[in-house]
User: Fold Indole-3-acetic acid-amido synthetase GH3.1 from Vitis rotundifolia.
Amino acid sequence: MPTIHEEWDRRQKLYSLLMPVMNLYVPGLDKGKGLYFLFVKSETKTPSGLVARPVLTGYYRSEHFKKRPYDPYNVYTSPDEAILCVDSFQSMYAQMLCGLLMHKEVFRVGAVFASGLLRAIRFLQVHWQQLAHDISTGILNPKITDPSVRECLAGILKPSQELADFIIQECSGGNWERIITRIWPNTKYLDVIVTGAMAQYIPTLDYFSGGLPLACTMYASSECYFGLNLKPMSKPSEVSYTIMPNMGYFEFLPHDPSAPPLSRDSPPRLVDLADVEVGKEYELVITTYAGLCRYRVGDILQVTGFYNSAPQFQFIRRKNVLLSIDSDKTDEAELQKAVENASLLLREFNTSVVEYTSFADTKTIPGHYVIYWELLVKDPSNSPTDTVLKQCCLAMEESLNAVYRQGRVADNSIGPLEIRVVKSGTFEELMDYAISRGASINQYKVPRCVNFTPIMELLDSRVLSTYFSPAAPHWTPERRRTD
Ligand code: AMP
Assistant:
């Protein structure tokens, strides 16, 4: 994505609005600190010699971030040296250690997306013993070798047997429920994006935080920052973002799934920001200061209302179709809904789907949908039975659209849906793999559909059990007309 230096001034203005808005709803945040897990990646060069890096790496390395004036509302537990360390293990270790050392001062816990915060919790689950050891002895883990991180932690890490004992007590029993509020008892909310593709992490975040409010503060992309949520404490399903008209030039392509595809003969009619209508769905089209011209971001938004004259939008989904075997087209929102519906059957087993991805398996004829599930079984003595997991396959099929079900029932063009349950920690490995290939930790999103051979091999090597839909889903021609 092209960007220009002055873009940071504009983006900084958007960032600077977040805390004044939050302060309207959660007072006293200037008396505590934010534990935010933020990461950078190393830079690369394009063939023409331009620097290429993830947008947030650019921001954390900018003078805007590094030389920010002291602001009591934006004090982080993570030192800049830890955020700016390119080794993701050392960076995470240092940030977690500082978060533990300052645990009583933490008023909010966050990351950019929900997946980043869950990765941090996972890190705590794996490394709490070493972290507690460092706190007990006051000696930093020798695996932290970055000199600037070591130097700055030397000023923060003081031995405290009391704190080490507290961490051991909270982490050693293997019970991770409410771990966030147990370790950071003054946390008032989690600051993570859980709208769009991140919505499926809400139950897991609720489990780790005991249902703390989830604040989705802004809506942004590498191409352009768009806007902010003026009611950050609203429920994730009710979040609307107000687009800031000064961030770029915004136009909207009316989104009508039944309309014929765009062609030269039927050029799109774009609607200006001021002219969008409440209730309608649009695809976001941006023209940026850095040079993108009428660029389709791929996000579908729905107008929910206005703040003064500024329209507000609910994030509906990214446009891309995820799965298709025949004429069926399943997008991210449909797949998410199907996983949600099927996972209701797991409730009585106190089990939830913590991660999922999918694959259109066309090696067999007919092809079929494969859904990889990583489960959180809270009570291993009551784990879901094979019969229930087969019923989950069918429940997913029942949730999918009529074209899919027609393919399954009438046309036999789609085979029974398959669920492959993978070992706990598999999606963590998937993220590690993506990061090793250049993905940014901050901006990483679990792909909801995979087809890259090494990723498939990784997933398949972690499969514990597989289940197929035991029956055909419901479908009738009448139903299809109204669907
Ligand atoms: P990236 O450029 O990798 O940071 O990804 C930007 C994309 O992430 C956006 O175009 C959206 O699809 C998604 N995204 C960013 N912010 C939000 C949000 N607040 N809610 C839902 N999706 C978001």
